[in-house]
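User: Sorry, folds how?
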Amino acid sequence: MLSRLEDESSGEIKTVQRLTGEIGLNEEKVVHIVPRLDGVVREVFKDLGDQVKEGELLAILESRELADVKIGYLAALKQSKLALQDLERETLVYENTQKMLKLLEQRSDLEEIYHHLNNLVIGESRKLLIPAYSKLQLTGSVYQREKQLHEKGISSKSEYLLALEDYKSSEAKYVALREKIAYDGDWKIRQKQKTVEIEQLNLQTAIQKLLALGLSAAQIEHLRTQKNPIFTQYELRSSLSGLIIKRHLTTGEAIKKDDDVFVLADFSDVWVNIAIPANNLKAVKLGQQVKIKHKPMAIEETGRLTYLSSIIDEKNRTVTGRVVIPNPKKLWRPGTFVSVELVLEERAVPLAIKTEAVQNLRDWSVVFVKYGNILEGRPLELGVSDGIWVEVLSGLSAGESYVVKNSFAVKAEIEKSGATHSH
C-alpha cells in the first residue's frame, strides 16, 4: 500500500463561489473595417481566418468619389502655392515701393533715383509716381525762376502767379499720389495675406477629407509628388493586428461606404463573461481573484474581476461580470463555456490540511498519522474549508505528518485489520 505523508501547514482558506462563464472576444480589440466611400472591389488579398498586421493591405477598390477628393486636394494645393507666390511678389513690390518713397522724400535728383530703382520690382507705382515727382521738380524750378524774375521786375505778376499755381497743383497731386500708393500697398498686402489664409484653409480641408477616407500622411505626400497618380484607386488596409473573423466582399462587387466588409479581432487576450446570481452580489467586488477552467482542454487561467454590470437580467436574475485573461496560444476560443471559481474571501488560518486527506471513521473526521510503523486515525475538529484546504481547530500539532494520497485505502485497511486507535 502506497501512502504519502505531508507536513501540516498554516495557510489561507478561500471562500469560493463556483459559477459558469463564456469566453468572448475582447470588444476593445475588435475593429470593423468599412470603406468610407462607395466603390467597386477591384482585388481582395485576404480571406476569412487570415492573420494580418496593422497597416497590411486587405483589398483595392475603384472609387469615383475618391478621384474627386484627390483632384480637389491637388487643385487646393496648386491654389495655395499660387496665393503664396502672389503674396511674396506683392511683399517684394511693397518693400521696393517703400524704398522709392524714401528716396523721393529725400528730394534726390531723378538720375540718382533711376540709378537706385533700376533693378527693383516696383510695378504700377513707379509708372505713376516718378512722372508726378518729375513734374513737381519741373514746376518747382519754373516757380523759383519766375519768383526771382518777378522780384527783379523782369516778369509780370500774372506769370509769377501762374507758375505758383502750377507748382502747388503739381505738389498736391504728388502728395496725394504718395499717400494713395502707401495706403494701397498696405491694403494689397492684407488682401494677399487673407487670400493665402483662405487657400491654406481650403488645402487643410482637402487634406482632412483624405485623412477621413483612411489615407495616411505618407500617402497624401506621395500623391503630391507622384507624376501620374491613379485617382480612383483606394487601398483598404487593416487598422489592427489580428485575425479576420468576418469578410463580406468579393471581386467586382459594388459596395457602400458604410458596409462592414471586414471584421478583425486581436485574440492576444479574451473576455470571460460570468453570470453572477443577484442574491450573491453583496460579497462580490471588483478586483477579486477568479480562476477559469476548461476541463476538456485541460487548461486554466487566473485573472481579476474587472467589470460588474449595473443591470440585473430580468429573466435569469443575474448580473454580468467580466474577467480579462491572456490568450497567447489562442487556446481560449470565444463561445466556449468554462467553469469559474470566484474567490469571495481569503482568510489566514494557523493550521490547514488538504481536504482529500480527511476521512469519516466511526462518525469522526479523521486523518491518518504515523506512530512508529503503524498509521492511526486521528480525530480532528475542523473549521472552514474552500474545497482544497480545511482549517484544523484541534487534533493535530505542529510538526506532525499526515496521509494525503490514498487516505481512503488506508481507512479501508485499518477497518479491515481492526487496528484503529481512538485518542
